[in-house]
Amino acid sequence: PICSDAVGPGDAGTYTCGPWYRACAAPAAMHTLAVFVPEEFDLPDAVDLCLGGIVHLSVGGGYTGLLWSTGSTAPSIAVSAGGEVWVAAMDPNGCPVEAAVLVIEHDCEVVVPNVFSPNGDGMNDAWFPTGGFVQANVRIWNRWGGLVHEGDMVVRGWDGRHYRSGARCSDGVYYFEVEFVKVDGSRRRQAGYVHLQ
After folding, report:
1. Which residue among 14, 39, 183, 186 sits deepest, i.e. has the most Cβ atoms within 10 Å of its Cβ?
2. What's the chain's average pLDDT?
3. CA–CA separation, 127 vs 32, rounded Å?
4. Average pLDDT value for residue range 67-80
5. Rounded to two decimals, what is the model's pTM?
6. What is the distance between the alpha carbons of residues 80 and 109, in angstroms, rounded to a whole number?
7. How far apart are CA 112 and CA 175, in angstroms?
């Protein structure tokens, strides 16, 4: 097999070749040529990273001999600093491939929405903050002081349902406390109200 961009799949096939010198010819040999165009990684050229958070890069399945510039050999990595990250591997056909991703750091403001509507329309169906952190441990109470949700909103945002019974919580205002954890281990607490409608 040949891994090349110089030839295409149309060049694949069986070829006959043999030595020829002046009037003398030796027996010919047949060779089958398989042509593979390298299967590039499905990675962006650049990604944004909020300071204090992480961004995940993944090459998908089927690649072997993976090596990231971080030293990892896993199919996906978590990146917590800006700069260029490269990866090299063999694609499913044994062709060498490589790529580089520019990770661009931003000093993002932590945004905690104050309203959401989990009505199944695909917009604003879950409540979760955005910004630079790796964990967002939250506890949410109803107006009677009953705990309705707790957990890490990086893993799963609040969908407006009670965390134990799974029943949909009634529309209204809920009190929350959230602790944000940055990649360096530093923590910051925030409290407030969110309107479920």
Report:
1. 183
2. 91
3. 58
4. 97
5. 0.74
6. 17
7. 13
